[in-house]
């Protein structure tokens, strides 16, 4: 995978989470993902097509997802519900849309899909084994989460 694809997603995640949900996050490393079994409770999945293709998956625990939704909606949300699913889908859309804008400025032509949201502890997201995936863990005061960038050129 072209490493130039990673930084826009890191920067966009940090910026979008703070701007949309008033939550500061810190990147906690990078890792090559062999499979996509998550220990988190809810994921936003967004596909990318064009000069590069694949998917971006943002997976968060329920507590953090509820905090994101609460801050975005300006009302307390304490359990996973449709509002939380919508908020996590929207955060995914914003993160990927912002990163896409940065990649377009670098000369890539890309399209993004509508977010798909998956709910359930330990859910598995199938993907093509031929597409490398980099996991980017983040920490916040409300819990850790992960952004998985699985893209290939061509």
Main attributes?
Chemotaxis protein chec; alpha+beta; eight-stranded antiparallel beta sheet; 3 helices; 8 strands; single chain; 154 residues
Q: Summarize this, please?
A:
Strand 7 (133-140) and strand 8 (143-153) form a beta hairpin. 34% of the residues lie in helices and 31% in strands. The model has no long low-confidence stretch (mean pLDDT 91).
Q: Portion of residues in helices?
A: 25-40%
Secondary structure category: alpha+beta
Quickly count the domains. Answer: 1
Give the ordered list of helices and strands.
HEEEEHHEEEE
* Largest sheet geometry: 8 strands, antiparallel
List the helices and strands and how they pair.
Elements: H1 6-21, E1 26-27, E2 31-32, E3 42-50, E4 52-60, H2 62-73, H3 82-105, E5 110-112, E6 116-119, E7 133-140, E8 143-153
Antiparallel strand pairs: 1-7, 2-7, 3-4, 3-5, 3-6, 4-8, 7-8
Helix pairs in contact: 1-3, 2-3
């Amino acid at each position: 995978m072209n490493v130039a694809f990673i930084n826009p997603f890191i920067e966009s995640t940090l910026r979008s989470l703070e701007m949309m949900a008033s939550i500061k996050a810190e990147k906690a490393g990078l890792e090559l993902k062999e499979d996509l079994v998550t220990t988190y409770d809810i994921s936003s999945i967004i596909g990318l097509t064009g000069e590069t293709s694949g998917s971006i998956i943002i997976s968060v625990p329920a507590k953090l997802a509820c905090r994101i939704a609460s801050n975005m909606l300006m009302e307390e949300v304490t359990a996973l519900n449709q509002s939380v699913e919508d908020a996590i889908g929207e955060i995914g859309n914003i993160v990927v849309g912002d990163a896409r804008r940065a990649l377009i400025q670098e000369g890539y032509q890309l399209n993004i899909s509508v977010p798909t949201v998956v709910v359930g502890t330990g859910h598995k997201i199938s993907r093509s084994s031929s597409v490398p995936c980099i996991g980017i863990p983040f920490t916040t005061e409300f819990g850790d989460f992960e952004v998985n960038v699985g893209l290939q050129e061509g």
